[in-house]
Amino acid sequence: MEKSIDFYSRFLGLKLLSRREIKQNNAEIAFLQDSKGEGCTLELTFYHNQNKFSQPEYEERLFDHLGFEVSNMNETISALRRENVMITDEPYKLGKGTTIAFIEDPDGTLIELIERT
After folding, report:
1. For the chain, percent of residues with pLDDT exceeding 70
2. I need a surface site. Which of 5, 10, 13, 30 has the fewest CB within 10 A?
3. How far apart (Å, rounded) are the C-alpha atoms in residues 7 and 85?
């Protein structure tokens, strides 16, 4: 949970809104949102009794990816690279004025980064 909160806060600019324990399923949840409070809320869940977590290979994933808009792709990718974050697809142009890249969060969740100019 700590690594994920740190990752989404430092690299994607989300702020921790709240965090609490859920005794019924022995879990902890955290809610994060962009600093302006305008975007969607991301909920992270950590199950204390979970012994193993494995992300399926790309072709076998049921959930594909999350997407986040970034203001400067080069700065974002440089910061991620310095922290040895997995960059699965280097930045590339997708039409006029749009650059995208793909990375993985600490748990292997695929994240699309989008810069619109």
Report:
1. 94
2. 10
3. 9
> Residue 16 pLDDT > 90, yes or no?
yes
pTM, whole model, 2 decimals?
Answer: 0.85
The residue extents of the domains of the chain are 1-49, 63-117
Compute CA distances 74 → 71, 81, 85, 94, whole Å.
Answer: 9, 10, 14, 15
- 63-117: CATH number: 3.10.180.10
Radius of gyration of the chain (CA): 15
Q: One of 38, 69, 112, 115 is an active-site residue; which one?
A: 112
- Please measure the distance between the N-terminal and C-terminal CA atoms of the chain and give it in whole angstroms: 33
Distance, CA of 44 to CA of 27 (rounded, Å) = 10
Is residue 112 part of the annotated active site? The answer reads yes
2 is written with which tokens? 């700590």
